[in-house]
Design brief:
heterodimer, A: 313 residues, mainly alpha, MetI-like fold, 12 helices, 2 strands, B: 282 residues, 0% strand, globular
Chain lengths: 313, 282
């Protein structure tokens, strides 16, 4: 009975294919749980040795085996905040340009150029920053900042070209494409009817953007910003080149600092002491947990927007 | 009487739109600036020896990065061989079997987060599960790290493009009596081939420029190595070591490597976007 055999084979094929694709889909969840579990397991010696003090002490001494994560966490958070503060207005500007201003023929190429900024590997940003951008900052920009704005404590320091502010600036350029592409997508979801009613009562283009498009897309935009923050927090190579790699905390943004990712990149392969390695893994765990929370928040905000706002349109 | 309010509104309007124009110019200017420097400095550092010779001993001029070029290709190929099939299958589950299911939305959520998760953390993870148990840095560890980074990227794009295939097409094939898996492989995959190719190319471009996850996995090597259980040199790690080093010749080599990797990544990205998938066309 060939017909029945074929029917059977089809059924087996179906079950097999579904099973295999199910396996790989579930593997993503398993992988992320495993990632967390392995990091936690490897971090236990450090957490046992230092306890919660690991989070708020700032010694980092491989010789005496005393480790505290505060300066690295501080550097990661501050450099990312600088990046977001610089990147958000520019990204919004780019998104407005792409959705409202740009003539149709320019829309594709300009959008493409911004996407290419995202495609350039992180290490290229780092290297370019170190060899081209940092010397320029050190000779032209930073002396000027220190002279004119030095009365504000955060702008004090030596004009080295590398430090918290340069790292934050390069990070800003790296996250601009991510923020502006999400912002562009949510702007496009604004119903034309809303915008047209704005124009109909005589609003200028900017008033329509500011009073209608932006409030309408608020949660989506907020999600875009948080997504950019998440990207900046985990960025490694560019920061390693530019932040100056000095383990300490200083209020001056021009001074060299460090970040979690830069500390890992610099020390992980050279660490021999078990507590040192474990402390580095603990830093990685902190970074993973922070970015996971931030990115999950971004994802929820963007999703809420496209369900509540864009979906209705 | 001139209408002051109206004039003020008009000025605000032009100022804001001007600022938005400047922002776009700012982004494009940095792209051009970086690419120009990489092109000028990098092209000057390239020579036939760069592609054929091994690195010279530290401090000596000459030599090349042939082994790093080979290493980057090796790792990218293995990572693609692992990451792409598993990513497409997982994406298939999301699009063909798990629509609306709770599991599928959990997978989607986690994959979206992993896409942006710090790649250096993946490096530590692979160090802990492969490098240390196996006793040393190895090419395969680097490839696994890259595959893990690739996986969520492929899953999300595969799901999106598979969903674009109209359900009527699926139903037509099912109505002819084809089993579900044959419909998926011979009808849905074929319909989404363009999109899948775009996604795979973008994922390959993304991982071939990665550095952070390779620092503690595939490490570095001054010689040729095709053995999977030994460390291997890659262009990106070579850039990191050479750019941080003290010699001018090393810096020139780093620019050369930067040029190669940037040119390759941008070429693949642009081809994927323009030729294979036309995102702005529709």
């Amino acid at each position: 009975m060939p017909f029945l055999d074929r029917h059977k084979a089809d059924k087996i094929g179906d079950a097999l294919f579904k099973g295999v694709s199910f396996f790989f889909a579930v593997s993503v969840i398993v992988l992320s749980c495993l990632l967390f579990a392995v990091l936690l397991w490897e971090a236990i010696p450090a957490l046992r040795a230092f306890g919660l003090r690991f989070l708020y002490t700032s010694a980092w001494d491989p010789v005496r085996s005393v480790f505290g994560a505060l300066p690295a966490i501080y550097g990661t958070v501050v450099s990312s905040i600088i990046a977001v503060v610089i990147a958000v207005p520019i990204s919004l500007g780019i998104a407005i340009f792409l959705t409202e201003l740009s003539p149709a023929w320019l829309c594709g190429p300009a959008g493409m150029a911004i996407e290419l900024l995202a495609a350039i590997p992180s290490i290229i940003y780092g290297m370019w920053g170190l060899f081209v951008f940092a010397p320029l900052l050190a000779s032209r920009v930073e002396p000027f900042i220190i002279e004119r704005l030095g009365f504000i404590p955060i702008f004090r320091g030596a004009p080295l070209g590398i430090g918290m502010l340069p790292a934050g600036f390069i990070l800003a350029i790296m996250i601009i494409p991510f923020i502006s592409s999400v912002a562009r997508d949510v702007f496009r979801m604004t119903p034309p009817m809303l915008k047209e009613s704005g124009y109909a009562v005589g609003a200028t283009r900017w008033e329509v953007i500011r009073r209608i498009v932006m409030p309408f897309t608020k949660s989506g935009l907020f999600g875009a910003v948080i997504l950019g923050l998440g990207r900046a927090l985990g960025e490694t190579m560019a920061v390693t080149f530019l932040i100056g790699n000095s383990y300490g905390m200083s209020a001056g943004l021009l001074n060299p600092a460090t970040s979690i990712s830069a500390t890992l990149a610099n020390e992980f392969t050279e660490a021999v002491d078990a507590v040192h390695i474990s402390s580095l893994v603990a830093l990685g765990l902190i970074l993973f947990v922070i970015t996971f929370i931030v990115l999950a928040g971004a994802k929820l905000l963007i999703k809420r927007f496209s369900l509540a706002g864009g979906g209705r349109a | 009487m001139p209408n002051f309010l109206y004039t003020r509104r008009k000025i605000t309007n032009y100022a804001a739109l001007g600022a938005s124009l400047l922002s776009a110019a700012f982004g494009v200017a940095f792209l051009v600036w970086i690419l120009k420097d990489v092109l000028v400095m990098g092209a000057g550092a390239l020579s036939p020896a760069f592609f054929t010779e091994l690195p010279a001993p530290p401090g000596e001029a000459g030599g090349g990065l042939a082994n790093a070029i080979g290493g980057t290709l090796l790792l990218t190929v293995i990572a693609t061989a692992i990451g792409v099939p598993s990513g497409i299958l997982a994406g298939t589950y999301l699009s063909e079997y798990g629509r609306g299911s709770r599991l599928a939305s959990a997978v989607r959520f986690i994959a979206d987060i992993l896409v942006s998760a710090p790649s250096i953390v993946i490096g530590i993870f692979v160090y802990a599960i492969i490098v240390r148990p196996s006793g040393g840095f190895s090419a395969i560890a680097g490839a696994v790290a890259l595959a893990i980074i690739m996986l969520p990227v492929v899953i999300r794009t595969a799901e999106e493009v598979l969903k674009l295939v109209p359900d009527a097409t699926r139903e037509a094939a099912l109505a002819l009596g084809a089993p579900h898996w044959k419909v998926t492989v011979f009808v849905v995959y074929r319909g989404a081939a363009r999109g899948i190719t775009t996604g795979v190319m973008l994922a390959v471009a993304r991982v071939s420029g990665e550095t952070a996850p390779l620092l503690f996995t595939s490490f570095n090597n001054s010689f040729w190595n095709w053995k999977l259980n030994e460390p291997v040199s890659t262009l990106t790690v070579a850039i990191f070591n050479y750019a941080m080093g003290p010699y001018d010749d090393w810096h020139a080599k780093a620019w050369g490597a930067a040029f190669l990797i940037t040119a390759a990544v941008l070429f693949v990205t642009v081809t994927a976007r323009l030729v294979v998938g036309r995102r702005h066309g529709g």
